[in-house]
Amino acid sequence: MTSGKFEILYKEARLNLEPASPSSIVQLRVAPQSAYGRSSSNRTSTDDEKGYRSRSLATASSIYYRKHHKSPRAFLWRVLENGTVLSIRVADVCKQQQAVDAPLILNLRFPSAIHSSCIGFADPKDVDSLCVFVVDQSNQLYSITLRPDLFRNKTTTDGGLGDACRVYSPPGFGFKHPHRLAVVSSDQLIVTMHDGGILKFDRNKTHDVHASPWKETIYNVAGWGQSLRGLVPFQRNPTVRYEKINMELTAAVSTAVATMGFENTAFLFTICLDHRMRVWDVRTGSILYTGDILNASRDLQEGSSWNINPSQSNLIRIEEGSRGECLVTTFSPVGNGEFKFWKVKANDQGSIHVADYFPGQQLIPPSPSSMDVWSMADFAVVGKTEGPELWALWKNNTSYRVHRLQIHPRNGTQCFNDGWKTVYIENSAPTVEASGPWNSIDSTEKWLDLIFFPGRFSKATLETALAVYEKGLGTYKETSSRAGKSIAESICSVLGSTAALGKTSAGGADYEQFRGTGETQWMRFWRLLLELDKQRGEALALVYDSEEGMVWTACADLLAAVRQCSDVDRVYHNLSSPEKKDEDVAALVAAGLTFVEGFNDSTSQLSRAALRAELFQESSLPDSERMQLFLDRAGFWSAVGDDDIAQVTDILGQNYRTVTSRLYEDLFDLITATNDANSQELREQFTGFGRKVIVRSVQDTVELHWGILFSQLILLVHMEFDIENEDESPLHSRFDVGSIYRRLIAALQRLEHLRWMVKAELNIPARVAVVSGVSSPQLAKRGQEETHTVTALEGLTGHLYGLPEDSDEPLLSAITDLVLDLCAPGSTTILQTCLLQCGLLKHDRPDLALELNPFADQDPFSIYVQGRVFLAHKDYDTAAYYFRRAAIGLSITMKHMDRHSSGLLDDTEWNLLNSGLPNYYSHIVSLFERQKAYSYVMEFSRLALQFVQTGAQDTANIKTEMLSRLFTASTAISHFEEAHSALLQMKDEALQKSYLRKLVEKMCETGQNKQLISLPFSGLQPKVDDILLEKCKATRDVLNGVPYHQILYAWRISHNDYRGGAAILLDRLQKLRQAGEGDKINSINGDALDTQVTRQYLLLINALNCVPSEEAYILEDISPEEKSTPTPRTNGGGDDLDAQLEDLSKKLDAENGAGEDEEDADLLAKIKSFLSRPAEGAAPRKLLTLADIRKNYQLELDRIVAIQNNQFAITGEDDNGDVDMMDIA
What are the residues whose beta carbons fall under 8 Å from the beta carbon of 574, sequence distance 6 or more? Predict the structure, then answer.
């Protein structure tokens, strides 16, 4: 919690540089394909530690800020893969309202390794682009122009860099070695050489494509003569050996360029190996100033002891002031290290004046600790009204520290002695909870939650650790079997294979030994992960953004954002030496933390379990009983000893006399935002990169606040029940303890909600602009399918974060204010659980939405959303329960309704809410119908119909829709009585007819024939008959499939239509004969006369026997064979249908005239209608009486007997149409 003698006023938020989606990385070659044969084949694998360092850990990194263009403005660059890859990404924290995010990462691949010290950037004034200048180890100068669209739209990179990349081989590099590159402008570069000279490059702006792109000019420290003498053996000046090169002492190791407000000239400041600063006039190449960087006079004999190591590159910084002035800060790494500040004045005629800002004063920065060896790795200087502000980066192997100093011009030495403040850097590993019977979660789940906490480890680190672990076990294979598995599954598989379930001495399963072995293997893997992760935190550069007021530490595989400490941060991290005004509240915080730290693992877990019950369960108990119940559940009183109580009383006094309500008010003031950081209009929104800073800061802040408030809750309950004697002034006699307890619970509820949001992850559509404006459907589809992984906090609420309209504070303070407001109990950012759940459902993550249910409110819309969550989980009973609960609240008409649902509900669905119960229930019906939960569709359809009011607007439409849905659902689950009832209530005849057909077909297909016949179908019976008749006519195979003939026969018989039943039996008889069923005679095991055809004849005869003899006839369609045979007309009955019908009509006319009943009248009308039919196109039919059918039946029997007796018929017809039979023996 403390950092030595330095007060902690800042803390950092470490950002994982791993992209949220692999598709965010764009690989670009800066040379022809032929130049890549060797480098591509020598790529190292990430499965070993060497390959991991090469591909994931940068050897150089920093941030470049453009001056003339704002979107994007910041670019993070890193050198990877042994210097062959320069990775560039946008690192803007904020963006203008209409600006498009730029999430792509460009990996520029070079054919040869590049000089990490020869990388420069420029921002052209007249073109919105980023100019990149690189010198590789083959002495090639690359100039690359990157447009902002390259970082936004993947389609712009499909053709490679093209003309945006120019390669130049400078002749000046033929006999000189480049060491540092300084960019003056997009048209002018300077490369410092190993011999102390500089090589100036001026862009050739001619349009000749064959001309050299650069004009070179060489300047030397001592002129050409001195330079040439340096090439002669045994005539060289003293040199320093570095990377196989002998470097002159005048060679520059650190450079900086300043214009001081002049447009036509610039000044190059260099720190050289001989411990001197030289100032060059870039326009003329002359040296304007040379002097020791400490302004010290030294003996020439001591020259070697003052030499600077050539690897030092961050020894000078320039802060430009008014026109013609600047402040130069130099650092000497010799000895303990010392700063020197210089006032520089110049004019555009090549005159310069350099003066010591603190003459005669030694400005030696104190080391972070005296126990280790620390070196100054980088520093930054910012001009402030009260004086220069200095930020220093100290480094010790992979550890680093960042210090800050506000310098006052009048007492510089005093400031350097005791004015340093420091940044809190989290170096300790996360606490690993012990596993045991008290732990409610599985050991594997515990470790996975710890390892896969968002932003903790990169995927490359996890894969490398797993490969190294497998190699240690001897189970690693080059062709790994992990294909298709996630990294979490692979880790569980490998670690799970190391533990075997043994037996105890009693012969039972030894679960304790199994659990212990598993814990040991997980702990080994965890330590391996931590060792690999340390390498990611090696600091490479310190960057200060003077425009936004932000400090960054660029590391090997991390980027640390420095932000200001909040009040509670400052108290927590400086508990050993708090400010005077915070001494009492610091004592309270220290007492709580000390008290809880004494708990063992079991007590700590039980206390947290008791807290969860307190947070998520509503209680109607009085405060005292509620606190007593919490104490009983936690049970920490049994683990508290006299020593633990003594530690608390030593801090808070006997009987905790220093604890007052005012003290708790001060504590709550610490965790409350000082302003409404999130309640104002946003001037600038945070980018995706900036949201990662917020999420990481919230993760740290939530854990810190939760730890403090949890310890305070435990301490408050302990103090309340520790003093039992009323004479000793217990807490409840001094202030309202219950009120403090409730406020602590409310604050912890907020923090618990945020803890979940910064831990849960979901996939959201990538914001890469690849869909708009593309001509390729494949590219458009690819853009739609790409997603990236973010935390729920960023994915669901990230659009709310930005800089307030009237805020002018630096970014490192604005981030803290925003984070503190977000974590505060009375935050202006309201986390509406229902909207968060809507967003998760929209992103198809009902599992995460279900986890938010404990935080849900109990208003009607929140209850409705909980129903949607359970519906997505297919828990229909629970979903229906919540939908019924929300019915009244969401049916009442509201004048002003807040229509926010994160896109889950469209306008049509919103219109059904708060507009009456029928509309609400109809909406619920549609939800269940999408899930095909038809029983619930029926339930809520009935409810909707129940509340439909006659005469109300749209009543008919709602009723029709609900009846339709009720019918569909009932039919789908074979509730045919319900479907029949809904069908009868329909008023739309066309709809009713359509559904009637659907119902009849469904019942026939499912074999519900008896139920079909038993249903009344009031007013619809003729239609049912027509539907069945149509299906019968369409049926060809009457033995297989749905027996429509038999169903229609049963239907007509049940409705006393025997002649109709006989007609359909006749149709089935004909189709049986056509199918050859009459020839299938069973003569071996049964009655040969019992065939499908003979049985059908018997049914037909029985049906006609049920009607009066004068009505025992049916009409039969004439077959095509009979049509081709001419039949003479007769007047005596015969087979002429028209003649017979005419005779029957005459008889009925005579009888009707005598006053017969209505049935004869109806029959007569039908006969006359039939006789008046058009002759052409009508199907001819004939009349079959009962006698005809019996005759045909007898003929069928005779035919079967003849076949049985081997009597084969030879048929022929005479002139009268009679058939002669001849038996052939």
Answer: 1, 2, 7, 8, 586
